[in-house]
Amino acid sequence: MRLSSRSQITLLLAVPLLLSAPLMHAQTTPAAASSVAAPPVDLPAAISTSAPARASSSNDQVDLDDIRNFSRVYEVVRQAYVEKVDNKTLMKAAITGMLSGLDPHSEYLDREGLTQLNEDTTGQYSGLGIEVLQEDGGLRIISPIDDTPAARAGIKAGDSIVKINGTVIDPQNVDSMFDQLRGKPGSKITLTIVHANTDKLIDLHMVRENIAVSSVKVRELQPGYAYVRISQFQDDTANDLDKKLGDLIKKNGPQKGAVLDLRNNPGGLLTAAVGVSDNFLDSGIIVTTRGRLQDANMSFSAHHGDQLNGAPIVLLTNNGTASAAEIVAGALKDNHRALIMGQRTFGKGVVQTVLPLDADHAVKITTARYYTPNGTSIQAEGIKPDIALADLTVNKADSAPILISSEADLPNHLANENAKADTNINDDGSAADAKLATSDYELSQALNVLKGMALGHTATVHR
Predict the structure, then answer these.
(1) Annotated catalytic residue 235
(2) 323, 333, 364, 451: the active-site residue
(3) Where are the domains positioned within the chain?
(4) Structure pTM?
């Protein structure tokens, strides 16, 4: 296993997905980034496996009576529990209970847990390349990833998976059926799907492949206004952002501003969070961590080279913005580099260290707290937005068509002597704003604020 074979280990930020949205299983992001049962993880730095020994106190010895009580409870469970429990299961439960009793983020990782950890941090897994939503006891396709088995087979957004390998999906087996979407590369699977608005069953025979999922999407909302969506912080997130945003600027020219969307981002690697923050900063502290171990006390600073050259940034957050995503939000907010809009972030401000026990087992334990550049701990409080936005859905109001909305609609009006040919005076941008607002209210508000900031930024530059 990659983590257990290294002499140095990884500091992580982890957050359970306590979101109000429907349970989403993502074949796009390996994560249990969409699984309530298995939280995604986050954050790195070096610490030696011998460090915990240095932190132990000779004054706090284990009481012999406590050892006797543990042994007695162990024997009582082994002999009297209604069903026979083997020793291995009992020992694993004891270790799991010891760690889970500390805080919500410390846990014991077996081979499966380490595999999940590796998938979460690398963005790579073996499957079909689809994002799936559990809905009414079934599985509905959110979207396929380009150039994956799912996309090549013709799966489309809105399709429903009815059967997997001939077994009908129902509320009782939906979780186990979802697990079957992944498997070894080269293994075969048959999905029976139904396209939206039809009732025809279609059997699709596919072969699982290694899927590499990008956590960064970059596009222009409007000419000169970039949209950067980061779904989680993986090994390559910072480099991916640097390349994709750089390509956009190279193609379309310098941007007037950007919306950085970190909504429902559960976190990821610290190095990725630091790298993303550094992409938008020229100087200043990004984050510091403090713990009992000397190696847990770290500070990360930005280097010269703001990819947007100081153009304004609006950063979107909500209650699902957590962990490493909060590091980015805190760094850009405290350094006065971005305006935060949306809702309060999740509020996970503690750091975990993954300590390998052997090739197949590890302990993930909380070792430090982290602080924003201003020295603020966001633990259990989160980061409040500069401009709060409610989580709303906007619908276009029904209204009768307006027959006369301009001087140009009046009969015998005088023409504008400077008017250009084929000019549509009604194309004022309001239709595009309505389209964006009805699909994503918060993003439309962020874009409108960004435009105002860009006007002020331009005026300042030209003075």
Answers:
(1) no
(2) 323
(3) 125-212
(4) 0.82
